[in-house]
């Protein structure tokens, strides 16, 4: 049975959307490799658990960096594994259409790598070449922003992923103006690691840092302060140690990446045609991507830009849902830049 498939190959997460079914897979973009044989031993969720815990014979690789493929072979293997897992053997890849999202600033060589990885991860050549859609456009479609060609209203989407933040103003079905930076959720994880090392003499791993960020991280003062016990290695004794930290102490630490995101948004807002500016003030900024869920980030953006902000429903899946809508909606399909496919 032929199925059309949408793939959001993200820095942190790969989401696969199957037409008529919705999102059928959402797993970390991670592969664990046996360093002596070079063979993959775990993919996705299973591989993510190994990060920071591997013996010398195993290494964990994130083949997507800043939204683009950094390790082609591993990315291709990961995609093939995910497609088989999500779509099973019943699917005939020989007759499958595929749409993949890519960052707006991706180079031509990087685009080709994504197309090549998608093609060769199928068991048989797909009927049509895979097609690419710019990530913020896909997220805007997934978030149901008014962007069909007949709608002349301007809307702004800010998609904060793990490795990138994409900002775009969309009108009449295409990106009017946009910008992106290689700052996303991972930048906040690094800030947690630095903060624990410099202020608490505690060395922690990436996974712990991400958990701290999600459970207690905060960019804007909240009525209810949260705390979390952080476990790692005490740098003074060299022994296992733990420290209780409070969300307000992370506000200062998170300022730097948060300001970079706000500056990118301000840069796009600056110089918009007045009617489009008016639309955006009226409709607000829509935020999507897992990074937009960081506590207080939407308030921070609202305060700094003076524009209302809404984190869209299902923010982590907006891109994949948008690609999914393009699979079945002819008018949306036309929005996909033919030149990219
Ligand atoms: N509840 C949460 N609070 C804060 N951050 C979160 C939350 N849930 C997920 N994240 C962060 O969201 C990021 C991943 O988001 P997403 O899955 O949209 O990224 P991606 O699409 O893989 O990356 P990119 O678009 O940059 O290639 C990670 O940094 C993760 O820590
Ligand atoms: Mg993304």
Mean pLDDT reading: 91
The CATH C-level class name of the largest domain: Alpha Beta
The termini sit apart by: 24 Å
Ligands present: adenosine-5'-triphosphate, magnesium ion
What proportion of the residues form beta strands (DSSP E)?
25-35%
Number of strands: 18
CATH-level-4 superfamily name of the largest domain:
ATPase, nucleotide binding domain
- Second-tier CATH architecture of the largest domain: 2-Layer Sandwich
Description:
The protein is α+β, with helices and mostly antiparallel strands. It has three domains: 5-136 and 320-340, ATPase, nucleotide binding domain (Nucleotidyltransferase, domain 5, 2-Layer Sandwich); 138-145 and 152-183 and 257-318, ATPase, nucleotide binding domain (Nucleotidyltransferase, domain 5), CATH 3.30.420.40; 185-253, Actin, Chain A, domain 4 (Alpha-Beta Complex), CATH 3.90.640. It is 37% helix and 26% strand. The chain contains eleven helices and 18 strands. The chain has a five-stranded mixed beta sheet, sandwiched between helices. It has a five-stranded mixed beta sheet with strand order 13-12-11-17-18, with helices on both faces. A hairpin with a 4-residue loop joins β11 (155-160) and β12 (165-171). α2 crosses α3 (108-120), α4 (135-142) packs across α10 and α7 packs across α9. It is flat. The chain starts with a strand and ends in an 8-residue tail after the last helix. The structure holds adenosine-5'-triphosphate and magnesium ion (MG). Magnesium ion (MG) binds at residues 8, 10, 135, 161, 289, 319.
